Amino acid sequence: MVGCVGGTTARRLGEQPRTLTCARGRARAATPVGFVAAWLSLLVGALLVGAGPAAAQTSTPASRAAHAPNSAPAEQPRLAEFLRAKQKARDWIDRLEVDPIELNKHHVKGKKKLAEILDAYLRFYRHDDDPAGRARIMARVRQMYQHTKRPEYHNMADNSREEFLENSMSYCRVAWLLEQFGLPTRLYRSHLRHIQPRLDEHLRVRGAWQRAMFARYYDAFGLEKPPILCKKTKRTGVIERRLPLAEYQQRSDGYDLTHEIFVAYNYGYDRTQSTLTEGDLAYARKILPALARRYMQEDDSDLLAEVLSCLTYLGWRTLPEFAQARDYLLDHQNANGTWGDWEEYRVALGDYVEQYFYLHNTMVAIHALMAVYEGDWPAAPE
User: Fold this and answer.
1) Which end of the chain has fewer CB atoms surrounding its CB within 10 Å, N or C?
2) CB-based contacts of 272: which residues, under 8 Å, 6+ apart?
3) For the chain, how big is the Rg over CA atoms in Å?
């Protein structure tokens, strides 16, 4: 554990989406700033190789980490449908091109999308017992890893304040994910050390769960924590505030709730948590099922998948909303393997709608289903 500066010793990843209401009336994640935002406004109103791993690197490479079994218990309902859905999603992700530099040119957050696809591949990797299958995943990951060798990828020291805020979490997450695959990040870590003053400073405007996730990254990369990550601050999350269900008015409210739970479990990479109290869990058990019902009614498979992951991590498999959310996702996969309906944005984004919207939606949906069927998460005591 890295000590804190001036204090005692001491996870659609990501950036919080703003809210955009679609022509159909459903809340959506915000579109990029700039010409795309203008287009969408019209539409609705008339997203290094180093010499080797650093000596301080403590993460466990995916190649050596324990991973969940590839097959779920035979008694799992709709298992065959899940396996088909997983293969369709994998086929689509295998075809998707994610070049973070090129995406940035088209007002899509390239680092965020690189983090999302790497996260998807890490889940596939850890649930694949076939050496040939794991080799194919590693080949694809190494291909995307090449982007992080490009000088223009490491622009966090001199990009704009807005761009830094939009990319800081994903920039850290990409490094962490690469290390889980056992790939060298010595030079990447040197860039992180170089931008630490900006990281430290921008934490003042980050929310509660984001600060908690940055604290994890500071520990993982051996960065000395500033005081803001070492002490209780006035910024509290929706769980600690016990935000009433009636006040979950924006998508960002549900996003904050799921991410507070995600961070507690390191996005499902940790099997236990030590931050949520009994009172926190009682609150979440009340709110999560209600949000699951709402998101199914609103056809929001993106946030529904995040809620299902939370229910799985917490072991609440006997809740009726658990099976309902699982079945909804199985019933609403698109023919091409994706989840969600973002076609109204294709006019403005063109084919980049695939990376901007469909990638996150598909990633969280297949993550949720893999956790249900292959994660071997225990049920909580009744």
Assistant:
1) C
2) 265
3) 20
**Chain segment 3-57, per-residue pLDDT in tens:** 554 433 333 333 334 333 343 334 444 444 444 444 444 333 333 333 333 333 4
Beta-carbon contacts of residue 125 (< 8 Å; ≥ 6 apart): 62, 67, 134, 137, 138, 141, 181
Helix, strand, coil tally for the chain in percent (to 5) = 60, 5, 35
Give the pLDDT score at 61. 54
pTM reported for the whole predicted model: 0.84
Q: How far apart are CA 317 and CA 365, in angstroms?
A: 17
At residue 265, what is the residue type?
A: Y
Task: Give me the pLDDT at residue 151, please.
Answer: 97
Buried b (16+ CB within 10 A) or exposed e, 153-172: bbbbeebeeebbebbbbbbb
Quote the DSSP letter at residue 7: S
pLDDT (mean) for 255-283: 97
Per-position b or e across 263-287, b if 16+ CB within 10 A of its CB: bbbebbbeeeeeebeeebbebbeeb
Write the single-letter amino acid at 78.
R
367/119 Cα distance (integer angstroms): 9
**Residue pLDDT, tens place only, 157-181:** 999 999 999 999 999 999 999 999 9
Residues present in the chain in total = 382
Q: Which residues have C-beta within 8 Å of that of residue 223, sequence separation ≥ 6?
A: 2, 192, 193, 196, 199, 217
Place 233 in a pLDDT band, splitting at 50, 70 and 90: low
What pLDDT, on the 0 to 100 scale, is given for residue 73?
A: 53
Return d(Cα 85, Cα 319) in angstroms, integer: 23
- Which CATH number applies to 19-374? 1.50.10
